[in-house]
Amino acid sequence: MKKPTATQVKTFLVDIVYDILGSILYGIGMVTFASASNFAPGGVSGISILLNFITKGVLPIGLATVLINIPIILLTYKTLGRRFFMRSVKTILISWPITDYLVPLVPKYAGDPMLAAIFGGILAGAGLVFIYMRDSSTGGSDFVIMAIRKKHPHLTIGNISMAVDGIIIVLGAFVYKNINATLYGFIMTIIYSIIIDKLMYGFNSSKLVVVISEKGKDIAKAVGDEIERGVTIANGVGAYTGNAKKILMCACSKAEVFKIKRIAYKADSKAFVIVSSVDTAYGEGFKEIDD
After folding, report:
1. Which among 81, 82, 145, 291 counts the fewest CB atoms within 10 Å?
2. What is the structure's pLDDT at 27?
């Protein structure tokens, strides 16, 4: 068995830290605010909250999330690939004990459900940002969302999440026998979807990443292999040094910016990266070309 390099170990440890921080914030949003206030947002966590309420706490939220994830993982494994699958399983296994054993130590919120939906959404969204930034997920509907986004990369995670989660949120009205449960669930889900999009990606739906590096071909190949994005390469010369460089241009979705930056700096720590917003992108993987 090949011994992991120092860089791989460091990356793994950073992933763990992000998973722990993200799981704590996400768990507090779901358990301390949503579950405690008798409403459920979307996603598998929402289903787990409903099952926890139905079973009167016999089935813990974290454990329920793991059990529901099993069939979803099996169905989406081929679409998402082994790397994303392994990262997500790691995150799920870290999130489980944090949700069931650590988060319950935080005093439950017992105030206005509207405030619970607002602050629960902010915390849950911030937690998911930590997790998504390391190319992972909490599983469940995240797997479905990521699978959809892989086929339609111009769609944002937040928008897909709202579409996938709607049915689950509506179920809250029947489980809690209170229409307000659905309203608060929608509010929380909208808030954490906005938080994810704004904190992680900014305001526009597409980005243009320009990378200037002496290892341009290596970076372009890695972007094509790992993200399946096309890259345009142009020749350039540093005005001060006179060194030949490659100028790479890649139009991508907001969710792919972090991945491209990571690829660029992994290949060349001195790479110069520019990220700009694109109002509209036409062509394969983006909007259809107008007639």
Report:
1. 291
2. 95
